[in-house]
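Hi, here's the filled form for the chain we discussed.

Project: internal
Contact: R.S.
Residues: 198
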Amino acid sequence: MTVKRGRPRGFDRDQALLTATVLFWQHGYEGVSISDLTKAMGIAPTSLYAAFQSKRELFTEVTDRYGDTFGAFMGRALEEEIDVREGFARMLREAAVNYTDPGHPAGCLIVSAATNYSPDDEDIAVDLRGRRQSNVEGFASRLAAAQAGRQLPPAADPRSLAVYFAAVVQGMSQQARDGASTADLAAVADLAMAAWPR
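And the returned structure, exactly as it came back:
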């Protein structure tokens, strides 16, 4: 008789990923153990390893999925708005709403998940830093294209503007985790846009 191994009946991989996302978002990478994950998912450690190989691989999948779901509003705003200024204004307005949404943890997972880490998990911090830096590069590319299309004054510095908006978004994330309201962050968004080059 052959004994079948693998995931138990009823294992929902997407739901497991969402559960892991919420845990990592709330507590950071190091603040979540395999025991925390399996208890929240309602599965055995062997099932977790069969589905995701390791906590590290699970976290990578979580952060990839986060960028395509909860964090997708940033790229969408910049891609869908023809006017670059409106694209950045929309991104900040939507950050105010998304970062304070009571339906999930406050702020941004990519900003907060590796606030504290041990030397053993330095690769996690490097990975998340790279993802944040990728956002800066995306902002800079969008701004440079806008400047070439005369939507941005010739004297403007796309790179400095990109770093500025990344700093605003990351600061909004932290403020949301500290209890700032949607209205508080919407006001920050309006103030930030006042720095737009004329």
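Let me know if anything looks off before we file it.
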